[in-house]
Amino acid sequence: MIDLEVVMKGLRFLVPTHISMVSLCAIVLTVLVVSHVHTESLFAPQTIPTSAGAAQDDPGPPIAAGTVVLIVYTISIPEYNLTIPSNFSRFAPGHDELLPNLEKALTGMKQGETKRVELSSDEAFGPYDAAKQLEVSKDRLPEGVEPGMVLATEDGTPCVLVDLSETMAKVDFNHPLAGKRVVIDVRILDVEMPPVDEFHMLPENSVTGAQIRV
After folding, report:
1. With the CA atoms of 156, 159, 160 and 161 taken in that order, what torsion angle do they form, in degrees rounded to the nearest 10?
2. Residue-level pLDDT at 62
3. What ranges in the chain are assigned the alpha helix state H?
């Protein structure tokens, strides 16, 4: 539930320009596809590490807890006819770095395999909750705001301004992709089983990619 006391503290700009829901979804997906991970474009494929000397006929170990996995993925939102260009990410299964149902779908796959994973709204970013649309006094908002702008409460909770009258404003605290089906096309580039000592010594951000979770 939204804390009304927090909301009534007032709202401030996060993005001082008009952003459509389609653009907002694109921004969210490029930032939120695999947890805490740095995502890079495939336009620089030379930066993608691969296992040296791996035999062509040996795909290596399957994806499981204890491995480190490198994937390339493309995300689509059918409802918006929106596709996010391919990116790659490294993650460690079993560390809550992917949406649970996405990690489950990838478990057991090996290097070179591909899969299309379709996630319902419940499996992705949750159902849309009408109770998260709230009306606040217009004087709680910065001057010059327009519907479609992204705002935030003073504690940093983001929301979208969806309607504005002379005295009142309606803001939506739902995730931009709440209630939306998500399609993720994944190709497994590499699956490694690092030595136990090496795995535990890896910096936290070295085995995580671009967040697909909230």
Report:
1. -80
2. 96
3. 4-7, 21-31, 100-106, 196-201
Q: What is the secondary structure of 146-206 as a DSSP string?
A: -TT-EEEETT--EEEEEEE-SSEEEEE-S-TTTT--EEEEEEEEEEE---HHHHHHS-GGG
Q: For residue 79, which phi and psi values (nearest 5 degrees)? A: -60, -35
Residues 213 and 32: beta-carbon distance below 8 Å: yes
CA–CA distances in Å: residue 99 to residues 38, 88, 91, 206, 212 = 16, 16, 12, 18, 6
How does pLDDT run across 142-192, given as a tens digit for each residue? 888 888 888 888 777 888 899 999 999 999 999 878 899 999 999 999 999
pLDDT score of 211: 39
CA distances from 105 to 109, 145, 164 (A): 9, 42, 42
Closest CA to 94 of 214, 210, 208, 211: 208
Question: In the prediction, which pLDDT does 202 show?
Answer: 52
**How confident is the model over 121-142, as pLDDT tens digits?**
999 888 999 999 999 888 888 8
Cβ burial of 92 (10 Å; 0-12, 13-18, 19+) is buried
Coil, strand or helix at 15 = coil
- CA trace torsion 82, 71, 121, 97 (10° rounding): -130
Distance, in Å, from the CA atom of 86 to the CA atom of 187, rounded to the nearest integer, reads 10
